[in-house]
Amino acid sequence: MEQLLSFAGENINMIYIVILSVFVGIEVISNVPSILHTPLMSGANAIHGVVIVGAIIVMGHADPENFIALILGFIAVILGTLNVVGGFVVTDRMLEMFKKKK
User: Which residues contact 73 (CB under 8 A, 6 or more apart)?
Assistant: First the structure.
C-alpha cells in the first residue's frame, strides 16, 4: 500500500491527465453523429494494428528464457489480431447495410 501511495504521489500529474482524457473522450464520442461511426470505427481498427506491431517488438526484445514475457507477448499478438479482424468484419457488415439491394 505504501508503494501505491508513493507512486500516486510521484505521478499525480499523469493521473490527472488520464482522468481528464477519459472525460474528453466520453464527451467527443457521445457527440459523434451516427453517420460517422462507420468511418471512425474503420480508422480505429487500422490504428489498432500498431498494437500488434508493438507486441511483436516487445516479444522480440524479451529474453528467450523468460517464458512469462513470451507467453504474454504471444497472447497480446493473438488478442490484437482478433481485435483488428473482428473490427473490420463489423465495419464490413455495417457498410453492407448502406448498399442498395437488388
Answer: 55, 56, 58, 59, 62
- Per-residue model confidence as pLDDT tens digits over 42-88: 677 777 788 889 889 988 898 889 888 889 889 989 988 888 888 78
Question: Do 81 and 53 contact (CB within 8 A), yes or no?
Answer: no
Beta carbons of 75 and 51 less than 8 angstroms apart: no
What Å distances lie between residue 86 and 29, 50, 56, 76, 83, CA to CA? 20, 15, 19, 15, 5
Q: Which contacts of 32-40 are long-range, i.e. CB under 8 A and separated by 24 or more positions?
A: 37/94, 38/91, 38/94, 38/95, 38/98
Q: Model pTM greater than 0.90?
A: no
